[in-house]
Design brief:
InterPro entries: Ig-like_fold. The protein is mainly β. 10% of the residues lie in helices and 39% in strands. It is built from nine helices and 42 strands.
């Protein structure tokens, strides 16, 4: 007995020694690469067939560096069971008969088989999970229809960590019906882009948790996950291969947003797919083919039938238009028009606006065209007879420099369209294809070469708290017999004749709509003197006419010059004219009085007026008068004041001499609402320190004076001989500043 005990003791010690040489570890604490967690598995599930109630899983995963084996962990609802797969990255449950039989499940069993005596995995594992729940499982799979699967890499040092869970659902024995075809609207990205996009929508599918849009690239289909939505757009996703990629023989769509919008014409892409061996049959096709499929918890369903879609014909880019004066007649001109070619276009049509609508001329398969010599415009005789339509057969007239007369006749015939105030020509282009026409391009607007009127200036003044006026000035134009000023109501310009004067004022012309008219929705300017003065805030009228100027409180004006035949010979657009609301109302001020003696008095300085220079003191009974300037305001920016007093007429002179040491005083009664104004200017006598201003001796010229007009407010206080104040008067006077001589050509 003793010997047996000794043998047992020796064997026990030997066993302990052996066990002491075995390394014990936890799977989560292995070192080196063994600590890297594998990525989740990818699982594709299949039904075993109608009536079987079973299916199988094909499971794949990414290889792990250094792994010598892999294990799959599949839950039975109570715990995980482990299946060693070998050093592979794919494994299937098919045929392995792992799942418990119906009899075993009815007996409360839940363990998987490793002897191949079970069955295929159930399509619905809830009965299995119920057994695990009753056995005390806390896995939380009770009433779930999914399987949960992990993968573990095995290293020479032992088991590594497990991956995150992949959920897998068995598909139904009969797959759901395929979705209805998608509905697609295609749009151009814009003129000249050569690209477009598709807005794709489809009907919802019962049980779907996601959708995929399937688009062919000419070689195969590519899939785009859209989420659980029923609409998706290619716009902005930059899916299509770039031109450089296509030229390199690439056809794959982008999923990184580094591609381009879909081509309006995909034939180049399909040619690449064809050369790569595609049998899709899309070579030389302009259509896209699109399907949609529903994604279920168990995987992808069937794809829909194909929806074919063509990108719309791209709108032509605006033509490039240059304008030119006709060499033989400076009252006529022509347009040179060019445009970008469009692939497959057979010809092009040029559209010109006649004041009411566009008329189109097929100019053939060219990319430039000129109106010169075409004689497409209405003749003077036709305009006199109220006919404005263009001639497409070449028996009309050349284009006038100013198309307003034509537009005016069109307006008289069609009062719903008013372009009678426009100097622009409007030009469009259309591409003509075998199967139709492109959308018409946007219009290019261009005026004929009309000389700009120089030396322009503006002035603004306030009349009262609601209204004011503007003054416009410009240099005389050679051979001009009439000037017209144009004032905008926010929608159209209305013309006002300035005669042969190079100055115009709105003061007292009463052209603005009255408040009553505005309240009644009447937004037209007056030319009958029955309106009111210009509003300080014209945006009220602009809003009434519903224009882009509705929030603008400036005036939009222009001036045009005409020769004796009525042909336009000059034009200028005035910008940013605002009546300054900071000015005191002119009708609340005293009548102007010229007191040159205090013209240079500093602001707020009170001065005593000497009796020898001011007759007012003659009645002061030995007393005195003080004058205090209270404020000054500029009424007019630098502009024409009067002709130089030393030159009573115009001369053909190459220049004029002036002597700053010799000063001349003069007064002028300006028709600007300022009354009599005095100014001092250089004389013209020869002498020391003279300076000269040159002139064009081929034209009649005359020196003139320009400067600013200022209103000064001052207070006069009358004191008796004893120094007692007995009267106070509030006065104003107008004066000039920054006077300068310049040469005009009346």
């Amino acid at each position: 007995m003793k010997k047996k005990l000794e043998k047992i003791l020796i064997l026990g010690m030997a066993l302990m020694l052996v066990l002491s040489t075995i390394t014990l570890y936890e799977p989560q604490k292995v070192s080196g690469a063994a600590t890297d967690k594998p990525e989740k598995t990818t699982i594709k599930t299949y039904s075993s067939g109608v009536g079987t109630g079973t299916g199988y899983m094909d499971i794949t995963w990414k290889a792990m560096s250094g792994a010598t084996n892999y294990k799959l962990l599949i839950s039975n609802g109570y715990n995980y069971e482990i299946f060693t797969t070998g050093n592979v990255t794919a494994w299937t449950t098919k045929g392995k008969k792992i799942f418990p039989t119906q009899t075993e499940i009815s007996q409360g069993k839940y363990a998987f088989h490793t002897d191949g005596k079970g069955v295929e995995f159930a399509s619905d594992p809830r009965a299995l999970y119920e057994n695990g729940y009753k056995a005390g499982s806390t896995f939380g799979l009770r009433n779930q229809q999914k399987y949960i699967v992990r993968v573990m890499a095995v290293y020479s040092s032992g088991d590594g960590p497990t991956s995150d869970i992949t959920d897998a659902y068995m598909p139904p024995e009969t797959l759901p019906a395929k979705p209805d075809k998608s509905i697609i609207s295609a749009y151009s990205s814009g003129a000249g882009t050569g690209t477009g996009y598709m807005d794709i929508s489809w009907k919802p599918v019962s049980g779907a948790i996601d959708y995929k849009v399937v688009i062919s690239n000419g070689y195969n289909y590519e899939y785009f996950t859209t989420g659980n939505n029923t609409s998706w757009s290619t716009k902005g996703k930059k899916i299509f291969p770039t031109s450089a990629e296509i030229s390199q023989g690439k056809y794959a769509f982008h999923s990184d947003g580094k591609g381009a919008e879909f081509a309006s014409d995909p034939r180049d892409l399909y040619e690449v797919g064809y050369k790569a061996g595609s049998t899709f049959g899309l070579r030389n096709q302009k259509k896209y083919i699109v399907r949609v499929l529903a994604v279920y918890p168990w995987g992808d369903g069937l794809t829909s039938d194909i929806t074919e879609v063509y990108m719309p014909k791209e709108k032509m880019a605006k033509p490039v238009v240059t304008t030119h004066e006709l060499e033989s007649d400076n009252s006529k001109g022509y347009l040179n028009i060019s445009w970008r070619p469009s692939p497959d276009a057979l010809s092009y049509k040029i559209g010109l606006f006649n004041g009411f609508d566009y008329q189109y001329i097929n100019v053939g398969n060219v990319t430039s065209w000129s109106t010169k010599g075409r004689k497409i415009w209405a003749t003077e005789e036709e305009l006199d007879a109220g006919q404005y339509r263009l001639h497409v057969n070449g028996d009309g007239s050349e284009l006038p420099i100013d198309p307003m007369r034509t537009y005016s006749v069109a307006y008289q015939v069609n009062p719903s369209v008013n372009y009678s105030d426009r100097l622009f020509y409007y030009t469009r282009v259309i591409a003509v294809y075998e199967d139709g026409e492109s959308p018409v391009s946007d219009a290019t607007t261009q005026t004929m070469p009309i000389p700009d009127i120089g030396d322009t200036d503006t002035d603004e003044a306030v009349i009262n708290e609601n209204s004011g006026y503007i003054d416009l000035y410009w240099a005389p134009v050679d051979n001009a017999s009439e000037y017209k000023v144009w004032i905008s109501d926010g929608k159209n310009f209305k013309e006002y004749s300035a005669g042969d004067q190079n100055f115009w004022s709105s003061n007292d012309q009463k052209i603005w709509p009255t408040n009553e008219e505005l309240e009644r929705g009447l937004g037209q300017l007056h030319d009958d003197g029955n309106g009111t003065d210009l509003a300080l805030k014209p945006s009220q009228l602009y809003k009434l006419n519903n224009t882009a100027y509705k929030d603008y409180d400036g005036y939009v004006t222009r001036v045009t010059a005409y020769d004796e035949k009525g042909h336009i010979i000059g034009h200028h657009q005035f910008l940013d004219i605002n009546i300054q609301t900071i000015l005191e109302p002119a009708d609340e001020l005293p009548e102007p009085e010229i007191l040159e003696i205090i013209e240079n008095a500093p602001l707020d300085e009170e001065v005593m007026l000497p009796s020898k220079d001011n007759g007012l003191l003659k009645s002061a009974s030995g007393g005195y008068i003080t004058s205090k300037t209270t404020s000054s305001k500029r009424l007019k920016k630098v502009g024409f004041l009067n002709y130089h007093p030393d030159f009573s007429k115009s001369y053909n002179s190459a220049g004029y001499n002036f002597a700053p040491s010799i000063r001349r005083s003069a007064s002028v009664s300006l028709s600007l609402g300022y009354g009599m104004i005095s100014f001092t200017i250089d004389g013209n006598k020869n002498g020391g320190s003279t300076y000269s201003k040159s002139a064009n001796e081929k034209k009649k010229s005359r020196p003139a004076i320009k400067g600013e007009v200022w209103k000064t407010y001052y207070t006069l206080r009358y004191y008796s001989g004893g120094g007692n104040l007995y009267r106070t008067e509030y006065k104003t006077y107008n004066s000039t500043k920054k006077e300068e001589v310049y040469i005009t050509y009346p």
